[in-house]
Amino acid sequence: MSTDFFAAFVIGLLGAGHCLGMCGGIAAAITLGMPGQRQNRRFPYLLCYNTGRLVSYAAAGAVIGGAVAGMATLSGLSTALLFLRILAALMMILLALYIGQWWQGVTKIEVLGQSLWRFISPFAKSMLPLKSPLAAFPFGLVWGWLPCGLVYSMLSWAAVAGNAASGAGVMLAFGLGTLPAMLLVGSFAETLKQWLSNQVVKKTSALLLLAYGIHTGYVAITQFS
User: Fold this and answer.
1) Is the C-alpha dihedral spanning 22, 27, 29, 30 positive or negative?
2) Burial per residue of 156-194, b for 16 or more beta-carbon CB atoms within 10 angstroms, e otherwise
3) pLDDT tens for residues 127-169?
4) What is the model's pTM?
5) How far apart are CA 36 and CA 55, in angstroms?
6) What is the enclosing helix (H) or strand (E) of 116?
């Protein structure tokens, strides 16, 4: 399971370019109406916002991980977890293809959450402008449910984590991986963005994730015998 935590962190780190594309504009929205735009004024807002976002990720992982583990225990269908493990391995492979820019189909998963987001979005917007850094925490809690193919893919790993705590751990590790890009501002963020856009970094990371996904699927398949 510790390997899954590490893999989740790496996916968050390498997928941060996608996160910046979807959530990068939120940094500007968070600082609307603030007295000044200096970095030291923005950071507490960004920190509280991202803390709320990670809490939502962990909560979703706990719910899904606990629910799937509970259903598997009550039904006695231990093989169901193996099938889900294979599905999670497949999602890892799809993520590798996305990060390597060989196939972008994983973003199509985002349509699954659009109905829920249409209901939540007005509530999030009603919180703006934020009056204090602490007000950014509930804003992040809500924004953590933004439809995101990377998040939904990681939830498939949380589902087969074995229990609620491990499911939360997988999602928390993923969220921590996205944190550097979401907290950095100015030249530091631009430097990280350029590094994440480097083709050698992307292809190498994608190949490593692809190998891990294939290995995970193979191990799950062999357990059927």
Assistant:
1) positive
2) bbbbbbbbbebbbbbbbbbbbbbbebbbbbeeebeebbe
3) 877 888 898 899 899 888 877 778 888 888 898 888 999 999 9
4) 0.82
5) 28
6) helix 114-125
Q: Helix and strand tally (H, E) in the chain?
A: 10, 0
Q: Among 84-98, 152-166, 171-185, 188-202, which stretch is predicted with the lowest mean pLDDT?
A: 188-202
The candidate with the shortest Cα–Cα distance to 224, out of 82, 76, 69, is: 82
Which amino acid is it at 1? Answer: M
CA nearest to 88, candidates 149, 132, 23, 153:
153
Inter-residue contact 59 to 170 (CB < 8 Å):
no
d(CA 138, CA 218): 41
d(CA 187, CA 192): 9
* Sign, CA torsion 219/97/148/107: negative
Distance of CA 3 to the CA centre of its chain: 17
Residue 101 burial by Cβ neighbours in a 10 Å radius (0-12, 13-18, 19+): exposed
